Amino acid sequence: MSGHLNWIGYRTIVRKEITRILRIWGQTVVPPAITMTLYFIVFGNLIGRRIGEMGGFDYMQFIVPGLVMMSVITSSYGNIVSSFFGAKFGRHIEELLISPLPNGVILAGYVTGALARGLMVGGVVILVSLFFTRLEVQHPLITISVLMLTAVVFAMAGMVNAIFAQKFDDIAIIPTFVLTPLTYLGGVFYSIGLLPEFWQKVSAFNPILYMVNGFRFGILGVSDVSIGRAYVIILVFALLLFATCMTLLNRGTGLRS
Amino acid sequence: MLALQVQNLTKTYANGVEALKGISMDVEEGDFFALLGPNGAGKSTLIGIVSSLVNCTSGSIRVFGASVQRERSRAMTYIGLVPQELNFNQFEKPIEIVVNQAGYYGIHRKTALERAEKYLRQLQLWDKHDKPARSLSGGMKRRLMIARAMVNEPRLLILDEPTAGVDIEIRRSMWEFIREINERGTTVILTTHYLEEAEQLCRNIAIIDHGNIIENTDMRSLLAKLDIETFVLDLRECLEQPPVLEGMEIMMRDEYTLEVSLPRRKSVNALFAELDHRGIHVVSMRNKANRLEELFLRLVDKGQAA
Question: Taking chain A, what is the end-to-end CA distance rounded to the nearest angstrom?
């Protein structure tokens, strides 16, 4: 297929994904907004007032970037894993598999759909946060690029999960036992400077730490890690996951008998 | 030109099941081709490999000259597939399902909408185009899959039991639709368990059993191989025992019904003359099974005995 025909195929997948996100907005956009509102009220407002400052900011201001990033990570991962696995389970993934679309276009379409949901949810959480605190974005380009790259990384991770998943339980294991602990330990609620040295070194192996801090640097201008290293780590994960997704799709793992 | 060229195709699944054992067959462009076989014979595996849903173990497969293994994208542009199982998103609307499928083939949205309306109307689904697909009846869902397969206007349409579970009226309208598509030049490959359907529609045929092609010829030659035909005769008066006629096997179903196995060399006129001579009057007559069905069962039984 020519580039133009692939472009139409890509747009079709993206349109379908966004239509799905909007059709079930009560499951895709509203729950993260409610959860994050509770975080803002409980952690930011009630507990945060007793904590005082962190990293030179009100505790509420400090946790906003982390909570936005947390919702973007779970939404982009969750979107692709439920949509792609749902298509596999309902067998309508065959509509794509028998089409002439190259695997790269299929991956790009689903990742863009997940990115769209990540951005929608991130936008809603930022809007909610404005009811509780004031935000002045220090580095807009860094903010948006880290946000988008993170959504893309977790979308591709979700794709790997969806490809291997055989049953619905399989799409809940990674978010529950890997993603949630890494996110909570990734500096969303605290600066790793508060940790003992040993745990600071352990935290350095958590990729989410770099994403949260990269985003926090973009918004607040402060970070526990260097912004350069954060970009390198995010890009390395993006490339590794892209290569994994393409290899699995080209082999037909979990999709073609 | 060959629409489909299959050479020495084998498929062994991970669990060791040998679904195809080196089959070869050709389908000419414009043909209406029947692919028959009992359940588990390998038909769906073959269709899966042609449509790239299943990876073959060895051999080659070409669609209008394009190798499915090496030029997948080009080969797939030629194919429309109606699978055996429902495989669309039940939460989407028929119009979305058909238009999205067109998009995957690189068809502009405007053209896709026009074609979707055309095929949904032709398949009597237009009044449901905006309703969730899950609300359609079984027959409508099958027709929706045909509309979806037609939206890229394929040169090769593969129908894997398209009329399974569909009532006779809708089945006949689907036959009519598919026959028209074939007359306009689309090559059609049909698998079905309704052998009457295959006999009426198809010009050429392959029968697969246990992963091997046991027959591959034109329909007329195949039917000519049927050396014995069995007829059911309804009688005016009752009989106590069946008549004995030379060279024919006659059984009584009940006192008013005879089952006569007639060798091809004997004419039906000879049968009637003999019965008339014995004062047996026939009210009506029909085939016990349709001819292809009778032949199919014999071929498959022979294959199993071997």
Answer: 24
